[in-house]
Amino acid sequence: MSDAPALSCRGIRKSYRESGAVLEVLRGIDFEAAPGEIVAVTGPSGSGKSTLLNILGVLEPPDSGSVLIGGIDAWLSPEGGRAALRNRRLGFVFQFHHLMEEFTVLENVAIPLLIAGRAKAEAEEAASAILREVGLEGLTGRFPSKISGGERQRAAMARALVARPDVVLADEPTGNLDPVNGERLRDLIGQLAHDHGQAFVLATHSAVLAAGSDRAYRLASGLLIREG
Amino acid sequence: MSCPVVPPVAFRQIWSRAHSGVVRMVSMLSISGIAIGVAALLLLDAFMNGFQGSIMDFLSMANPALIVTAPGGGCLTGRDVDLVRALAASTPGLGSVSPYLEKAAVASGEGGSVAGILVRAVDPVAERGVSSLSEGLPASGSEAVLGSELAARLSVLEGDSIRIASTETVDITSSGHAVVDTIVSVRVAGVRDFGLAEYNSGLAVVSLGTAGALYGTTGRFSAAGVSLDPGADAVESSAALSASLRSEYVDSRYDRFMEAEAFLTRHENLFRAFGLERFGMTVVLALITVVALLNLSSALAMIALEHRRDTGVLRAMGATPGHILGIGFLQGLILGVSGCLAGSAFAALAILAVNRLVPLHLEDSVYWVDTLVARVDPGTWLLTMGATIAACLAASALPAASALSVPPAECVRHE
């Protein structure tokens, strides 16, 4: 495990204007995640966890501050550079799996590699390997609508990991799962972080998931407070 | 745009079975709309080509491509015709030359039926190189080929005799009676459908020898017909021949001024009217395609909206704005090409059916031709398809841009 952070941010501020009033969601966030580290961010609904993850994931620009991914200031990069960062260095897991309904599990998992320009056969081979790793090798030809919620979320995890990113950002990954599947996913995250040295940043309500992390923060009033 | 993820995403979103199959149905409706628009334009073009072409063919079949006359109504002599032959031989695109005499006459059948006719006197052998008028007319002898309707009016068949009286040699006696002193009796060598109603009802084709006996005009001609080589342009060739004739008159001091004219330009107003009609109908039918394109645009916008979340996920996985635009444009292309192919197939089948199986009959006294045929111009066919596909791509621009306009974070927000 290297000490250089896989992901870091400095002075992130973000506010929204709503009915003329300014709502300040993030008020100077400093944060970093090292390779192989699992960092949990908890907080009540509307506290800004998803906004923080979107900013860290280069999906939504901050009002000010910087996000460094592998030493590159993401928000100073052009659009093409930000897309490349999302493709090669970041993986996303959403609360609702967000698998594409028209594609099989295998095809869904292969998509990040196809976006990277890899050949279909090569992408599907890599997707098969990661699906084996998350225990879905028997479901490769199924469509998302034909598998269970827990299996969908594991497939989404496989999709986030297939390009071997440095950082996986997971927004409420167990929020839509029953406790048993939630614990399975937590164990899987722990195993993957250990095996591949990827940093995981989890925005979660789940105390169980937060307890399994290496570091936990609580987001309150736009500030990150270290909890464990 | 060339990313391997773009084609499968574009294709599967169009044919998506998700969302209750609505997307698939909307895609099918878009394709149908474009197919109808394309088929309407292709069928209009094919039938207008067929109708106009049939009339041109019939006019050309019964007449030489170019006609050389002496302005002012003077007759041509054998020497004039020889000059035309010499100039035609040295002008690219021009073929044979055949002089003819055209005059009015009165014909009567064996049963006493009488009809006013137009006598076209030709050299049967030379005329074969210029038009099909002399088909069935022997090289010598006092015989005539009649239009089918004229033969019916005179109640004669092939092998019967008719009498033709010249209206130019009528003497009026002191008692006021008309005395026609030039009447020839000719055998009906053939009864033909000349293709044109006005020729069928009043044309008699005879040899120049018969006309000489009838009108006493040996060695004088109304005009000289000139044929064209295949692919030669009638208007350009007539201009070239006219220039040569003018040069002979002005520079070489030839004693007769002659002019060449493409036969079809005598019907210029008719073909301009065809052109105007075709333009008007094309504009009207193109509106179908415009409506189909608007429908396509709204369908693509709906597909983009239905897959907004997928767009956000693709962006999160590293898809660039170019990929998202590529998906939108490719969807427009798929629907456009499918519609064009379906419309082309329908038009081709309809044309095949009308030309081979179910001919469309027309009233020939009104339209000159008795059957409507369709003729395909491959260039126009390809142009119609190409323009439609280009328009489909243009119609895809707005939905593709709208898919890109929503920030990716907004697309993947919790539902």
> So what's the overall shape of chain A?
globular
Query: Helicity level of chain A, as a percent range?
Result: 25-40%
Largest sheet of chain B: 6 strands, mixed, barrel
Spatial order of the strands in the main sheet of chain A?
A: 6-7-8-3-9-10
Q: Can you tell me the residue ranges of chain A where pLDDT is under 50 for at least 5 consecutive residues?
A: none
Instruction: Give the mean pLDDT of chain A.
Output: 89
* Beta-strand fraction estimate of chain A: 25-35%
Order of helices and strands of chain B: HHEEHEEHEHEEEEHEHEEHEHHHEHEHH
Taking pLDDT < 50 over at least 5 consecutive residues as the criterion, the unreliable ranges of chain B are: none
Main β-sheet of chain A: number of strands, strand sense, barrel status?
6 strands, mixed
What does this structure look like?
The complex is a heterodimer of chains A (228) and B (415). Chain A has 228 residues and is α/β, with parallel strands linked by helices. Chain A contains seven helices and ten strands. Chain A has helices spanning 49-56, 79-88, 105-115, 120-133, 149-161, 179-196, 207-211; strands spanning 7-18, 21-33, 38-42, 64-69, 72-73, 90-93, 167-171, 199-203, 215-220, 223-226. In chain A, helix 3 (105-115) packs across helix 4, helix 3 runs parallel beside helix 5 (149-161) and helix 4 packs across helix 5 (149-161). Chain A is globular and about 50 Å long. The model of chain A has no long low-confidence stretch (mean pLDDT 89). Chain B has 415 residues and is of the alpha+beta class. Chain B folds into two domains: 3-59 and 270-413, no CATH class; 71-257, no CATH class. Chain B contains 14 helices and 15 strands. Chain B has helices at residues 6-14, 22-61, 78-90, 124-127, 148-154, 197-202, 208-215, 234-250, 268-306, 308-316, 321-357, 364-367, 378-405, 408-411, and strands spanning 66-69, 76-77, 94-108, 114-122, 143-147, 161-166, 170-172, 178-180, 183-192, 203-207, 220-221, 223-228, 259-262, 360-361, 371-372. In chain B, the strands form four sheets. Chain B has a six-stranded mixed beta barrel. In chain B, strands 2-11 form a two-stranded antiparallel sheet. A two-stranded antiparallel sheet of chain B has the order 7-8. The longest helix of chain B is centred in the N-terminal third of the chain and has 40 residues, at 22-61. In chain B, 40% of the residues are buried. The model of chain B has no long low-confidence stretch (mean pLDDT 87). Classes of the chains: A alpha/beta (228), B alpha+beta (415). Chains A and B meet through helix 2 and helix 3 of A and helix 1 and helix 10 of B.
